[in-house]
Amino acid sequence: MSKRIDAIDLNVYYGSFLAVEGVNINIEPRSVTAFIGPSGCGKTTFLRTINRMHEVLPGARAEGQLLLDGEDIYESGVDPVTVRTMIGMVFQRPNPFPTMSIRDNILAGYRLNGTRMSKSKADEIVERSLKGANLWKEVKDRLDKPGSGLSGGQQQRLCIARTIAVEPDVILMDEPCSALDPISTLAIEDLINELKDDYTVVIVTHNMQQAARVADKTAFFNIAGTGKPGKLIEYDETNVIFNNPANKQTEDYVSGRFG
Ligand SMILES: Nc1ncnc2c1ncn2[C@@H]1O[C@H](COP(=O)(O)OP(=O)(O)OP(=O)(O)O)[C@@H](O)[C@H]1O
């Protein structure tokens, strides 16, 4: 089930360094949102606070509220592991578990939680997840072969299938196509378009054409200089951000004047 995300006055730190300051953003369910901006403006840092992945680094923390359908995921008593099941993440480099079979990669989330299930239930999850990631036809005859034997683009779709398998509400993607060739990139972009029927999708991308192709809304982040915090400058319909932005910084960035 797709859920809404609201960040309220969110600050993100690495130790005493304030990396991202004062983010307020409302992300609708069943939509794709792109985060764009120059290197170091905090896109990845903010993305990782949405599923509490940020805090796995020693000294890293967030302040403020991050609501998932109105429930603050930073409230005391909330288990970050549960949060990461509800809000899945796909990384820059495809990272299937290399020695595990394709099938076991899909079931990894359940195995890690110690969930027991019948073979037919497991088969059903494997098929549903691979179909959901547009990979089923390519791998259905080799489910017991290692995930590392797939092409880069297939491995990334396997990682998306592994994320879908645990039925999350939100899928976060951190430059999911940056290690892929153009054909595999298009396959992932098509898939992102389909995923928004069921999930809230947030993607960090350096590729402005990609943001324009896949995102309903786009958030532009910027940084005033080295050592300064990144900030959300403008957030609007993708079309507005690229064709008629309200802020001069956004206009300079999308027209290629810096970054
Ligand atoms: N592990 C870390 N420890 C300390 N500071 C960090 C760490 N990771 C990132 N930073 C700093 O936080 C700020 C934001 O970095 P972040 O990687 O989120 O930016 P980004 O917009 O995603 O950049 P890029 O587009 O280059 O990936 C930068 O100043 C960066 O140096």
Key words describing this protein structure:
10 strands; binds adenosine-5'-triphosphate; ABC_transporter-like_CS; four-stranded antiparallel beta sheet; transport; PstB-like; AAA+_ATPase; 259 residues
Characterization of this structure:
With 259 residues, the chain is an alpha/beta fold. It is 35% helix and 25% strand. The chain has 10 helices and 10 strands. It has helices at 43-49, 80-86, 102-112, 119-132, 136-139, 152-165, 182-195, 208-214, 238-243, 248-254; strands spanning 5-14, 17-27, 32-36, 60-68, 71-72, 87-90, 170-174, 200-204, 217-223, 230-237. It has a 6-stranded mixed β-sheet with strand order 6-7-8-3-9-10, sandwiched between helices. Strands 2-1-4-5 form a 4-stranded antiparallel β-sheet, covered by helices on one side. A hairpin with a 2-residue loop joins strand 1 and strand 2 (17-27). Adenosine-5'-triphosphate binds at residues 14, 17, 19, 37, 39-45, 57, 230. Adenosine-5'-triphosphate is lined by residues 14, 17, 19, 37, 39-45, 57, 230.
